[in-house]
Amino acid sequence: MSEVTTAEFNEEGKYLRKVRSFVLREGRLTKGQAQAMEQQWPVMGLDYSPEPLDLVKVFGREADTVLEIGFGMGASLVEMAKAAPELNFIGIEVHKPGVGACLADAAEAGVTNLRVFHHDAIEVLENSIQSGSLARVQLFFPDPWHKKRHHKRRIVQPEFAELIRRCLKIGGVFHLATDWENYSEHMLEVMSAAPGYKNQAQDGDFVPRPDHRPLTKFEARGHRLGHGVWDLMFERTE
């Protein structure tokens, strides 16, 4: 589980603009993570720039691009990239040990279709991603901020939904997942009210876990204990 951004929101879900709205969480890297940062960052790392990325240049090809916000330690992101070599993948994470672990796993798996940002997700989405350039955006198990007084800190807010919509191409999908039922209801409420989206659920409000999202160890344990996980998939329609 990853705290995807330290940007804060007010009661209406608007971003509070600060001179510096986030802190890169350095953490303590293992020897392997530090080595991966040194060796793999020149290959897979994306340095933040306020200029939009040229995805064809970054990946050396034309292909649909999937972006994941807050990939944690990156295990499932690497698994997804390995399972779908025909797609490009971009991951964003503020926690440096997670970035190091992801790079190490990707190198070991021989994955070549993955690039990562060690930066705040909101800034990357606002400035580094061209409008209408993504086929899918993934937000899996973001910090639930489960206390009621902290709900305003949840990343899924109306302004955020609009930011994601701008980044997606028409027909592109915003895929969210959470293991907090209260947050799933909040996500559903925000996304159902967001203009230009259509819920892809055929039956009810949520979708079954799609094959492209790997089952994490944490989630498998939750299933055994009877805990629920809720997936939402909203398609950009306009």
UniProtKB/TrEMBL annotation:
- Would you say which domain of life the source belongs to? Bacteria
Q: Where does this protein hold substrate? A: 147, 179, 216-219
EC number, as in UniProt: 2.1.1.33
> Its GO CC terms?
tRNA methyltransferase complex
- Pathway assigned to this chain's UniProt record: tRNA modification; N(7)-methylguanine-tRNA biosynthesis
Q: Name one Pfam family in it.
A: Methyltransf_4
GO molecular function term, any single one: tRNA (guanine(46)-N7)-methyltransferase activity
Q: Does the keyword S-adenosyl-L-methionine apply?
A: yes
Looking up PROSITE patterns in the UniProt record yields: SAM_MT_TRMB
* Binding-site residues for S-adenosyl-L-methionine, renumbered to this chain: 68, 93, 120, 143
**Reactions that this protein is recorded to catalyse:** guanosine(46) in tRNA + S-adenosyl-L-methionine = N(7)-methylguanosine(46) in tRNA + S-adenosyl-L-homocysteine
User: What UniProt keywords are attached to this protein's entry?
Assistant: Methyltransferase, S-adenosyl-L-methionine, Transferase, tRNA processing
InterPro entries registered for this protein in UniProt: SAM-dependent_MTases_sf, tRNA_(Gua-N-7)_MeTrfase_Trmb, tRNA_methyltr_TrmB_bact
Q: What does this protein do?
A: Catalyzes the formation of N(7)-methylguanine at position 46 (m7G46) in tRNA.
The entry sums up its family as follows:
Belongs to the class I-like SAM-binding methyltransferase superfamily. TrmB family.
Q: What is the recorded name of this protein? A: tRNA (guanine-N(7)-)-methyltransferase
Quick one: which gene encodes this?
Answer: trmB
